Structure to design on (262 residues):
């Protein structure tokens, strides 16, 4: 992939966490979470990152979002990531997490939640009329009627909550969304609707997606390319078809053999 085509470039990224004995006593030890991870995501690409729980998938996503420290280099839309640039990066990268009930304030109404990203200092100011117009645009994009603006979060189904989470991520018109296990808390039929929503957003907006999952079946359905992560390392990368039908690494073959879901 040419560097000019790359929207996200992760280069030799490592991360560790510190452990200590019971009760805070004993010698501290550094445990690796990410071990020199490198990958590229092109503009408008749906890229799947798959691996079992604890392999480092979520940690990598948090590194890209600038939420935790790491060694190595992350370049987003040609700019080297810096925590001081987080507000600028917010216009390029947003996130959707696993549990929408945990990421949405239950005391607020949907309209308020969708407006909130536009009230933050992320660039030019948005007046009230512009914010309301953008809220209506995004509700239409996520398949909900304008009347949902007046509803509270606790009045929504889990699937509707996840749509609102996606809507909040869309408000600033990002070019990349990091979706971390976004359907694992949903039943099969609602999860399929959310997957199709991501596909529609990709097609209609040219949106790139880093889709993090423990399920190879889902990433095969949705993604253009897949990276398989094992113990903090990328062990295989390829097109969805190639990884699914002709896996090269023993770990990938094991995942397929046990039924795709980790």
């Amino acid at each position: 992939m040419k560097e000019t085509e790359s929207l996200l470039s992760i280069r030799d990224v490592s991360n560790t966490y510190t452990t200590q004995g019971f009760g805070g006593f004993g010698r501290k030890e550094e445990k690796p979470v990410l071990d020199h991870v490198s990958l590229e995501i092109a503009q408008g690409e749906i890229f799947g990152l798959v691996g079992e729980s604890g392999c480092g998938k979520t940690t990598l996503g948090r590194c890209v979002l600038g939420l935790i420290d790491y060694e190595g280099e992350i370049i987003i839309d040609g700019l080297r990531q810096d925590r001081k640039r987080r507000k600028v990066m917010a216009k390029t990268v947003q996130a959707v997490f696993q549990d929408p009930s945990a990421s949405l304030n239950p005391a607020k109404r949907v309209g308020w939640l969708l407006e909130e990203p536009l009230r933050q200092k992320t660039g030019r100011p948005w007046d009230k009329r512009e914010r309301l117009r953008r809220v209506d645009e995004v509700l239409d994009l996520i398949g909900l009627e304008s009347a949902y603006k007046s509803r509270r979060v606790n009045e929504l189904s889990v699937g509707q909550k996840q749509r609102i989470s996606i809507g909040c991520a869309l408000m600033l018109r990002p070019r990349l969304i990091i979706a971390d296990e976004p359907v694992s808390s949903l039943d099969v039929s609602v999860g399929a609707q959310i997957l199709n929503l991501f596909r529609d957003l990709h097609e209609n907006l040219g949106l790139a997606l880093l889709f993090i999952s423990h399920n190879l079946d889902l990433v095969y359905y949705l993604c253009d390319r897949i990276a398989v992560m094992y113990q903090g390392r990328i062990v295989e990368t390829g097109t969805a078809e190639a990884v699914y039908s002709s896996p090269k690494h023993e770990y990938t073959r094991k995942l397929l053999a046990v039924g795709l879901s980790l």
User: Anything to note?
Assistant: The chain has a mean pLDDT of 89. The CA atoms of residues 46 and 139 lie 22 Å apart. Residues 188-205 form the longest helix (18 residues). Strands lie at 6-19, 29-42, 46-50, 71-76, 79-80, 93-96, 176-180, 208-213, 225-230, 233-239.
